[in-house]
From TrEMBL:
<dbReference type="InterPro" id="IPR029058">
    <property type="entry name" value="AB_hydrolase_fold"/>
</dbReference>
<dbReference type="InterPro" id="IPR000073">
    <property type="entry name" value="AB_hydrolase_1"/>
</dbReference>
<feature type="domain" description="AB hydrolase-1">
    <location>
        <begin position="28"/>
        <end position="283"/>
    </location>
</feature>
<dbReference type="InterPro" id="IPR050266">
    <property type="entry name" value="AB_hydrolase_sf"/>
</dbReference>
<protein>
    <recommendedName>
        <fullName>AB hydrolase-1 domain-containing protein</fullName>
    </recommendedName>
</protein>
<dbReference type="GO" id="GO:0016020">
    <property type="term" value="C:membrane"/>
</dbReference>
<dbReference type="InterPro" id="IPR000639">
    <property type="entry name" value="Epox_hydrolase-like"/>
</dbReference>
<dbReference type="GO" id="GO:0003824">
    <property type="term" value="F:catalytic activity"/>
</dbReference>
<dbReference type="Pfam" id="PF12697">
    <property type="entry name" value="Abhydrolase_6"/>
</dbReference>
Length: 300
């Protein structure tokens, strides 16, 4: 089934891409990572559209990213971003959602799922998907451009921007399309520096103070969870690609907090498995959705 993205804006100013059958009340809600944007999912959503896919697709631009202004969320936190997405789900009158998060977006996906299920609307979150998630407590240290790095305060804004670009380039793999590399780097440069740093601070703080509790709550709820993992972090804080059969510290940690998780290692991919291996990710994602449908039909 072929269908095109429609550019939309929520009542409180959040930009998002919407596609799929208008009559459908089920949706995949995509949440991007730090300094990314909703259109990053275009490679994956294209694959989904080529298959037997009858749900709606919602790809959000978080505040300060893409076409969503920072002004719609003056104090950026993982919870505040999730509140915006939960409100959008209710605004669209969706009844069943699976929330997909990439990188930083994994935190927001879990928070969004919780807020959807706690809201007074008709929507339920029936599943969560992670794309190359992580936990900062498992890293050997901060990245060079982050405020917690010992040399951060001695660097100029230009040096910080150059370090951000270097980190992003290291996230790309051999299969990353050149067009995506270009748009991703352009987006990083275009972001408000102070706001993007505030978001970065918020998600690192979340990891140390809230991430474990949120994961444990997801685990105790039994909500179906699929984890796509393409990278690990080595002793020098550099990303390395995983091979089938390998298990990262994050995968072990996640399994301890949420035992229901299903892991899938995406080989030959950088930090963006939905960009580098969209066909493989779409196949596994659709199988996950079908399994949830069976559970929901039995429960219903």
């Amino acid at each position: 089934m072929a269908f095109a993205d429609i550019e939309c804006e929520s009542q409180d100013g959040v930009h998002f891409l919407l596609s799929g059958p208008a009559a459908s009340t089920s949706a995949l809600v995509f949440v991007h990572g730090w300094a990314c944007e909703g259109s990053d999912y275009r490679y994956l959503t294209h694959e989904l559209r080529e298959r037997d896919f009858n749900s709606r697709i919602v790809a959000v631009d978080l505040p300060g990213h893409g076409k969503t202004p920072k002004e719609c969320c003056s104090h950026p936190t993982m919870s505040a971003f999730a509140e915006k997405i939960s409100a959008l789900v209710n605004e669209l009158a969706l009844e069943r959602t699976i929330v997909v998060g990439h990188s930083m977006g994994c935190r927001i996906a879990v928070e969004t799922c919780s807020k959807i299920n706690e809201s007074s609307g008709n929507a339920i979150c029936s599943g969560v998907v992670f794309l190359d998630g992580s936990h900062y407590s498992l890293r050997p240290g901060r990245l060079a451009f982050e405020r917690g790095d010992p040399l951060h305060d001695n660097r100029s804004p230009e040096q910080i921007d150059a370090l951000k670009e270097k980190v992003f380039k290291n996230m790309f793999g051999d299969r990353t399309p050149s067009e995506f590399k270009r748009t991703a780097l352009e987006h990083v440069k275009a972001m408000d520096s102070e706001y993007s740093s505030a978001i970065r601070d918020a998600f690192i703080e979340y990891d140390y103070h809230s991430w474990d509790e949120a994961l444990a709550s997801l685990g105790s709820s039994g909500t179906p969870l699929l984890n796509f993992q393409s990278n690990d972090v080595d002793a020098s804080n550099q990303r390395i690609q995983l091979q089938a059969g390998q298990v990262s510290k994050w995968m072990v940690h996640l399994g301890q907090k949420a035992p229901q998780v299903k892991h899938f290692v995406v080989e030959d991919s950088g930090h963006f498995p939905h960009v580098d291996q969209p066909k493989k990710v779409s196949e596994v994602l659709l199988d996950f959705m079908k399994a949830i449908d069976k559970i929901m039909n039995i429960a219903g």
